[in-house]
Amino acid sequence: MAGCKTAVSNVVMSTVVMLTLLLITPLFKYTPNAILSSIIISAVLGLIDYESAYLIWKVDKLDFLACMGAFFGVIFSSVEYGLLIAVCESQLVFRLCY
């Protein structure tokens, strides 16, 4: 909410987003897919939290296994498969350990 005090800011924000999508998105029509994918990759690299993964590694190795399964499932397939892999791995570990 960038310091706004009223709900009018939501109206202004939604209007700006709508105008941006309507007016600027057609400019990307002729942009090569390699350029668009490099933009997405550079944006996603900042979302990876190495410190949390290292903390999970120090606390519990089996949870780290589920974390990495979810990560690689999302990277190489989709969010749904990454979540499915993490749930299945955590259930398997739970059944084996307890």
TrEMBL record:
Pfam families: Sulfate_transp. Residues 2-69 form the SLC26A/SulP transporter domain. It is found in: Membrane. The chain crosses the membrane at residues 7-28, 34-57, 64-87. Its main location: membrane. One of its GO terms (biological process) is transmembrane transport. It is a multi-pass membrane protein. GO terms for cellular component: membrane. Keywords: Membrane, Transmembrane, Transmembrane helix. This is SLC26A/SulP transporter domain-containing protein.
